[in-house]
Specification:
Elements lengths: L2 E4 L9 H9 L2 E5 L2 H5 L6 H8 L3 E4 L1 H4 L3 H13 L2 H8 L3 E3 L2 E3 L3 H4 L2 E5 L5 H9 L3 E3 L4 E5 H19 L2 E3 L3 H4 L7 H20 L8 H10 L1 H16 L8 H21 L12 H9 L4 H4 L2 H15 L11 H10 L2
């Protein structure tokens, strides 16, 4: 899939994982409650800038789902059919006097905040009744951490399936949640883990990146992005090359070496390629009609033009590896 749905939180973190995801996917969606659509100042600065640059798309799950009550009911049934899970998690803390007390919850902060508009309100009624949630204010609940992780994984899976996105998270406790665990669920999470390893190896974190430049870069090189993504996905889907195998590291090193070779070729000087009939040849012919004192400076002047052209069009380098996109990231975004 070309698009990713991020969870569990509203704001994507300003981290290397997010930058790599922005560079790899056509678009990233984030599950956002309706309140944020009316009050965009609630977003963290990085998230707000990414949305303004159309790099991240806010997705209201209540607008996406046609039957939110029935969807929430499935999650409630999962818990109600497993009373031992409810009891075990309730031991980690009981809502009392405005905050979780008892067990280990008050000492470890074993809870997460969830916005009420992300789900049908009925689900919070049940969680509160079971002692797994407590209302903080008009918009937020605090929910026992394991339950919150499962709930957001559940919601992201349903929404992603509806809009044909791929759910993903950088938080491992969410990525390998036991909710609805089956072979298919485990397989796509294993693929996500493998994909993240590949991208981490191939795309070093371009610190202090300009999101506007990133957007323009992706728009300009979308065809190269697709070629690169196809190459990565072929490796992700190759079951004979596991992340634990020496062959996996060898393939990644080969890809990295090919990228670096392309980068080096983009920075080579090819003065011999400049011939009359090109723009530089035309300029040289024109300068020939100027006063004689200028003639001695012509080679240096043409070289300046040519080196500037190389900066502006490094993509002219021929590539059959599918890794030109990576080399351009190094040249354009990590200079």
């Amino acid at each position: 899939m070309d698009n990713l749905l991020y969870y569990p939180s509203i704001n994507l973190p300003d981290t290397d994982w997010t930058i790599r995801a922005l560079l790899y996917y056509d678009n990233i969606g984030s599950i956002v409650p309706e309140q944020y659509f009316h009050e965009p100042d609630l977003y963290e600065p990085f998230m707000r800038e990414a949305i303004q640059n159309v790099l991240i798309t806010p997705i209201n799950p209540m607008f996406v789902m046609e039957h939110p009550f029935e969807v929430s009911e499935r999650f409630c049934n999962y818990l109600s059919n497993n009373p031992k899970i409810i009891e075990r998690r309730r031991l980690f803390g009981t809502p009392e006097r405005g905050h979780f007390q008892g067990g280990r919850n008050s000492k470890t902060g074993n809870w997460d905040r969830l916005h009420i508009d992300k789900l049908d309100g009925e689900i919070f009624y049940h969680l509160t009744h079971w002692g797994l949630a407590e209302r903080i204010d008009g918009y937020w609940y605090k929910v026992e951490k394991r339950t919150a992780n499962e709930l957001m994984t559940f919601l992201a899976s349903v929404v992603a399936n509806k809009i044909d996105y791929q759910p993903a998270t950088y938080r491992m406790e969410n990525s390998f949640s036991t909710t609805c665990a089956n072979n298919q669920d485990f397989e796509w999470r294993a693929r996500q883990y493998k994909r993240d390893l590949i991208l981490k190896h191939l795309i070093p974190y371009p610190k202090q990146i300009d999101l506007t430049c990133l957007r323009r870069f992706k728009e300009r090189h979308n065809d190269l992005l697709r070629s690169f993504r196809n190459k990565v996905e072929l490796l992700v889907l190759n079951l004979t090359i596991t992340p634990e195998s020496p062959q996996f590291i060898m393939v990644l090193e080969q890809m990295k070496a090919a990228k670096e070779e392309l980068y080096a070729r983009m920075n080579e000087s090819h003065w011999g390629e400049i011939v009359f009939g090109t723009v530089c040849g035309t300029i040289a012919a024109g300068i020939g009609f100027m006063a004689n004192p200028i003639i001695g400076a012509i080679p240096g002047f043409l070289n300046a033009i040519y080196s500037a052209c190389r900066i502006e069009k490094p993509e002219n380098v021929i590539d059959q590896t599918g890794l030109k996109y990576l080399a351009l990231i190094d040249k354009r975004l990590r200079r």
